[in-house]
Write a structure and sequence with these properties.
Structural class: alpha/beta
Strand order of the largest sheet: 2-1-5-7-9-11-14-16-18-20
Mean pLDDT: 87
Helix content: 10-25%
Strand content: over 45%
Radius of gyration: 20 Å
Largest sheet: 10 strands, mixed
Distance between the termini: 36 Å
Order of helices and strands: EEEHHEEEEEEEEEEEEEEEEEHHH
Low-confidence stretches: 352-361
Length: about 350
């Protein structure tokens, strides 16, 4: 996360179910708790449950029916450009607690908003539950980049529910990084391109170990002429189970979509299940997918070792290259933050790999 507060356009911090801080440094960027925003704007209520269905599952229903919920409200006014990212931190500090969050993000016409969020816990082994509803509204010609870095403990269950609606010439770029073990994670963010030439990109980097079960995917509906999407996932397991899903549906002329999932299994106990799906409902759509799951090729390791690297160094080099995903349109600051997260994941994965090699695997 961004350590220098001078390099933020705004900050939001929530502990358990209570907002503890919100501030904005640009007059045309709004950052506040959802409850505060509802008091300020009568029209905001109309945005709730428009991008995510309230009856999607028991988790969305529990947020709506719960006695207490909060979350962040980020809004870029028409034509606003966030100089630095807006940062949010959702912190789970109490054991046996269900943290329920409902976030609303609005990028008004012609605006540009960059967001980085970090979700984490103070708990070591105590169980907890995080349910996060996030609804994005990208208006005509607006751009939103959203980078989420999760760092939970191995006993936490995590259930994000995310939806985005992208209007004409809008862009939604979503990056998700899972660095540390989590008991279970299930998320399937959905984006709807409702305006011509709308663009959506999902990038996921997943590293999980023994005892973790994650089911992650992205769903994109191309409902307007010329809409485009790219869904990329890189997954590494060192002992846990990963299901990597992707779904693209083309419902309008001249739409294009590509889905790609690649997985590495670095342990005999790990499993990866790739589930790519494409659906075209009329002639002229251009949709494609590719998926590959396997292990590090021994000949690649031997090739690098022949050039002076140790086996551990060779493995680390291959993993680093595998996780490296070039993300078009990401601001330099967020790009650097994402690279640091990937490097952390790569180091942890290679440590696990080296330990197994010493044990004779």
């Amino acid at each position: 996360m961004l350590e220098d507060t001078r390099q933020r356009s705004g900050t939001y911090v929530q502990a358990n179910n209570t907002p503890v801080h919100s501030s904005a440094k640009q007059p045309d960027i709004e950052v506040m708790a959802v409850t505060q925003a509802l008091e300020k704007y009568d029209w905001l209520q109309d945005y709730f449950w428009k991008a995510v269905a309230v009856d999607q599952d028991k988790y969305t229903a529990s947020v709506e029916l719960g006695e207490q919920f909060d979350g962040y409200f980020f809004r870029a006014l028409p034509g606003a450009k966030s100089v630095f990212p807006v940062q949010a931190c959702l912190y789970l500090a109490k054991a046996q607690l269900a943290q329920k969050v409902h976030n609303i993000i609005i990028a008004e016409e012609g605006s540009e908003l960059h967001i980085i969020t970090g979700c984490t816990t103070a708990l070591r082994e105590e169980p907890g539950l995080h349910i996060g509803i996030s609804e994005f509204f990208i208006k005509r010609g607006a751009r939103v980049t959203f980078t989420m870095i999760h760092s939970w403990n191995p006993a936490t269950a995590v259930r994000p529910r995310t939806g985005a609606i992208i209007e004409e010439n809008g862009l939604f770029l979503s990056n998700y990084v899972l660095m540390k073990p989590v008991r279970s994670l299930q998320m399937y963010p959905a984006a709807r391109c409702v305006g011509e030439n709308a663009i959506v990109r999902f990038n996921s980097i997943l590293v999980t170990g023994k005892g973790s079960s994650i089911d992650v995917g992205s769903r994109v509906l191309l409902n307007a002429k010329g809409a485009r999407t790219e869904v990329l996932a890189r997954a590494i397991t060192t002992g846990g189970h990963i299901t990597s899903r992707g779904y693209i549906e083309g419902n309008a002329p001249e739409v294009k979509g590509h889905l790609e999932c690649r997985g590495l299994i670095l342990s005999e106990k790990g499993t990866i299940h790739a589930v790519p799906e494409l659906k075209g409902t009329l002639a002229g759509v251009d949709l494609s997918h590719e998926a590959a799951v396997g292990k590090i090729a021994e000949e690649e390791v031997e090739y690098l070792m022949a050039r002076g690297l140790t086996r551990s160094e060779a493995t680390a080099t291959i993993v680093r290259g595998f996780l490296r995903v070039d993300i078009e349109g990401l601001p330099p600051m967020l790009g650097a933050e994402l690279r640091r997260a990937v490097e952390t994941s790569e180091r942890n994965s290679c440590k696990c790999r080296s330990g197994r090699e010493r044990d004779g695997y």
